[in-house]
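Task: sequence design from structure.
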């Protein structure tokens, strides 16, 4: 996952959506890569883009920029792009990343095909503040009730199976509040 070939495959299969992680590198590039670690790099957010780009992914592809990934995203009008904006070291950086991601999505005219998820409350709050009305924003951390998510302006919960098992009433409560529900393992 998080590769252009994985997105192509999801599009060819007619999958509802393809989730991918977005990080900002030390020198300000937005890249699509799963998690913080990449080969010998312990934290891609602390490394420059050129160094990351020179280390191929396990399938031989290069680490794509968000622009490159969204170019492929345009190839399907139905496969949604589920952007997980990863947590960054400061609130200021998270705000900057949110604004840059939103601008990049807007530049590619994909706002209607994108949904956002994040573990960071700050990222979700900034998405509520800066994204177009009607943007889907789901919170991942599992420490807010559906009511708290609704009050914050989030449109869904996207909690781990453990959180969902420990709070099964949250599914019904979310639906009653008009929130979407997703569960990850």
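Answer:
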């Amino acid at each position: 996952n998080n590769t252009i070939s994985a997105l192509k495959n999801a599009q060819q299969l007619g999958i509802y959506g393809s989730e991918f992680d977005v990080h900002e590198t030390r020198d300000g590039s937005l890249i699509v890569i799963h998690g913080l670690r990449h080969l010998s790099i312990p934290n891609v957010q602390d490394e420059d883009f050129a160094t990351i780009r020179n280390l191929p992914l396990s399938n031989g592809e290069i680490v794509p920029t968000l622009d490159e990934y969204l170019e492929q995203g345009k190839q399907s009008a139905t496969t949604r792009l589920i952007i997980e904006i990863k947590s960054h070291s400061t609130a200021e950086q998270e705000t900057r990343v949110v604004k840059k991601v939103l601008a990049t999505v807007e530049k590619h005219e994909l706002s209607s095909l994108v949904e956002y998820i994040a573990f960071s409350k700050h990222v979700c709050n900034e998405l509520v503040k800066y994204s177009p009305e009607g943007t889907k924003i789901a919170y991942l951390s599992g420490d807010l009730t559906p009511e708290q998510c609704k009050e914050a302006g989030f449109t869904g919960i996207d909690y781990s199976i453990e959180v969902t098992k420990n709070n099964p009433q949250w599914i019904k409560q979310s639906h009653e509040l008009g929130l979407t529900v997703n569960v990850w393992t």
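The CA atoms of residues 5 and 61 lie 8 Å apart.
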